Amino acid sequence: MRDLTAVKTALRAHRIELPSWAFGNTGTRFKVFTQPGVPRTVQEKVADAAQVHRFTGIAPSVAVHIPWDKTSDYAALAGYAADCGIAIGTVNANVFQDDDYKLGSIANPDPEIRRKALGHLLECVDIMDATGSGDLKLWFADGTNYPGQDDIRARQDRLAENLAAVYARLGPGQRMLLEYKLFEPSFYTTDIPDWGTSLLHCTALGPKAAVVVDTGHHAPGVNIEFIVAVLLRAGRLGGFDFNSRFYADDDLMVGAADPFQLFRILHEVVRADALRPAAGVAFMLDQCHNIEPKIPAQIRSVLNVQEATAKALLVDAPALAAAQQAGDVLGANAVLMDAYDTDVRPLLAELRAEMGLDPDPVAAYRRSGYADRIVADRVGGTPASWTS
Ligand code: LRH
Ligand code: MN
Fold first, then answer.
1. Using CA of residue 375, residue 377, residue 381, residue 387, what is the dihedral sign?
2. Model pTM?
3. DSSP 77-99
4. Which atom of ligand 1 is nearest to 184's Cα?
5. 179: Cβ below 6 Å to ligand 1?
6. Which residues of 34-57 are buried (b: 16+ CB within 10 A; e: fewer)?
7. Chain center to CA of 253
8. Ligand 2 centre and the CA of 318: distance in Å?
9. What are the pLDDT digits (tens) for 217-257?
10. How many whole angstroms separate alpha carbon 262 and alpha carbon 272?
11. In sequence order, what are the beta bridge partners of 213?
12. How far apart are CA 5 and CA 270, in angstroms?
């Protein structure tokens, strides 16, 4: 069994980034349900994200999404976040909600539309300069709905040309993270549908480009930890958008639908010694809390990742390697299952106490009265949502 001091040290250094949009009203095409106390401004989203860090101790940054988090002074926003005890993290571009992007953004057949989209991506790098963010995350809804609608190869050329223009704009210490997704909102082709297409573009661009694995963006049955192992081996895993799903891109709380899959993914991360921040893998949440209270759901999600990580750190690696080497199929599987079946909650409660935190973050948040305070304070104004 692993030495628990080393396990605790690794867990203490773990960093999980929150999505600002998870604190706003979200839903499906059928309905976006509203909740009382939802933020009206990016500053209120930051304040809510800071609550998650306050009680978990391992969520010190919040990703922003432009224009959902558009503001007049991004340096001041970074200052406000620092006052709240966290930082502005990854900057997410959005070229999927404008009428002009019906036939695509940087892959659109119309050069005028491509120029407009590229302009937004470059503006996001300007924002990174102001917030001090290191990562630009790019996800494109670009694709087609019917065979023949557009030329698959020509769209890849347009993508490559515009991604190269963004890449050239990146400053020192800045990276481009390229996210793939099998389908939706496009239903015939998606221009970056899988890890292979994203990796091809990243390798063509250069060392500052890496792949983002959103755990909800694969066909049913895909072995995501295999993709993670291969991307880590290639040195091109830039990060995760963690969530879980039963069917498609459900954006449910990570670990809620398949905690064993989450454990298997983090086992590959630990096996590659890529948990430490210096390894450059961004552990981000990308979720929508359509019906559940948002801040407790984010706290629960951070704890789900932390629990899966602790189990992965408890894998007896020498015993596993020995069983694998010996071709001991059942023995090797048993070593992994032993770690997965270990109840890590006492260990994590102990760690939180050592970090000066309440052993039960969800209960501590509930007792803090913050939820009632924001419902009382946030009256009037326009609650944030992914449509505004
Ligand atoms: C696309 C996606 C992407 C975003 C958005 C909020 O499905 O996963 O990461 O920008 O969700
Ligand atoms: Mn995502």
1. negative
2. 0.98
3. HHHHHHHTT-EEEEEEP--SSSG
4. 7
5. yes
6. ebebbbbebbbbbbbbbbbbbbbb
7. 12
8. 35
9. 999 999 999 999 999 999 999 999 999 999 999 999 999 99
10. 16
11. 240
12. 16
φ/ψ of residue 117, rounded to 5 = -65, -45
Q: Which residues surround ligand 2, an ion (CB under 5 A)?
A: 214, 241, 286
Contact 208, 177 (CB under 8 A): no
Q: How far apart are CA 58 and CA 61, in angstroms?
A: 9
How many whole angstroms from its chain centre is CA 217? Answer: 12
pLDDT tens for 270-325 read 999 999 999 999 999 999 999 999 999 999 999 999 999 999 999 999 999 999 99
Q: Give the type of residue at 279.
A: A
Distances (CA, A) of 36 to 30, 45, 167, 298, 380: 20, 14, 41, 17, 11
Q: What is the pLDDT of residues 77-134, one digit of tens each?
A: 999 999 999 999 999 999 999 999 999 999 999 999 999 999 999 999 999 999 999 9
Q: What is the dihedral of CA 16, 19, 25, 30, to 10 degrees?
A: -100
Residues in the chain: 388
Measured N-to-C along each axis, helices 294-313 and 329-340 cross at an angle, to the nearest 10 degrees, of: 140
- Residue 96 alpha carbon to ligand 1 centre in Å: 10
Sequence-distant (≥ 6) Cβ neighbours of residue 263 within 8 angstroms:
308, 311, 312, 339, 340
What is the residue whose two structure tokens read 């997965």? 340
Asked whether 249 and 275 are in contact (CB, 8 A), the reply is no
Instruction: Pick the residue whose CA is nearest to atom 2 on ligand 1.
Output: 139
Query: What is the residue type of 124?
Result: C
Report pLDDT for 388.
55
Give the contacts of 371 (CB within 8 A, at least 6 positions apart): 37, 293, 295, 296, 365
DSSP reduced 3-state for 336: helix
